[in-house]
Amino acid sequence: MSNENLKSSTVEDIMSKTLISVIPTTTIFQIAKMMEQGGIGAILVKENNEHVGIITDRDFATKVAANNLPFDTPVEKTMSSPLVTINHTESVSAAAEIMSSKKIRKLAVSNNGTIVGIITSTDIVNQFAKS
């Protein structure tokens, strides 16, 4: 795919619409089991009906394992917050720029303030490879 096609594709075109959210007191053990069973790499954290953070499979290496955290640690202690988002109508290349500048691999996608999906660096690579 040419760079032009990446610029014309929107985040909404390639994002995952499957969202799993937990409350801040959910333990990292419960989160790990949910990731394993669902075959997913990110879970959103929701408090008072608002998405406040995200925990990713990478967080387990850099925050949980590296700090030898107990499995009963609540996710609010390890989640990335505030949640970095991108509007669903933005270009895929805009998402790539945000990920690169913030050194993250997953972005929550919003539509009028509501989280409607997640776009990952893998989604972008797969879109690029379809050329």
Structure description:
It contains 6 helices and 6 strands, in the order ααβαββαβαββα. The chain has one domain (3-129): Roll (CBS-domain). The protein has a 3-stranded mixed β-sheet. Strands 4-5-6 form a 3-stranded mixed β-sheet. The chain has helices at residues 3-8, 11-14, 28-38, 57-65, 92-102, 121-129, and strands spanning 21-22, 42-47, 50-56, 85-87, 106-111, 114-120. The protein is globular. By secondary structure, the protein is α/β, with parallel strands linked by helices. The mean pLDDT is 92.
Main attributes of the structure:
3-stranded mixed β-sheet, single chain, 131 residues, alpha/beta, globular, CBS-domain, 6 strands
CATH A-level architecture: Roll
Looking at CATH, which topology would you report?
Answer: CBS-domain
Number of domains: 1
Quick check: average pLDDT? 92
* Residue share in β-strands: 15-25%
Q: Give the radius of gyration.
A: 15 Å
**Helix/strand/pairing class, anyone?**
alpha/beta
Task: Tell me, briefly, the overall form.
Answer: globular
- Extract low-pLDDT stretches: none
Q: CATH superfamily name?
A: CBS-domain
The CATH top-level class label: Alpha Beta
The tally of strands reads: 6
Question: Major β-sheet, in short?
Answer: 3 strands, mixed
Distance between the ends: 3 Å
Give the helix level as a range of percent. 25-40%
Task: Summarize this entry quickly.
This protein is α/β, with parallel strands linked by helices. Helix content is 38%, strand content 24%.
List the helices and strands and how they pair.
Blueprint: H1 3-8, H2 11-14, E1 21-22, H3 28-38, E2 42-47, E3 50-56, H4 57-65, E4 85-87, H5 92-102, E5 106-111, E6 114-120, H6 121-129
Parallel strand pairs: 1-2, 4-5
Antiparallel strand pairs: 2-3, 5-6
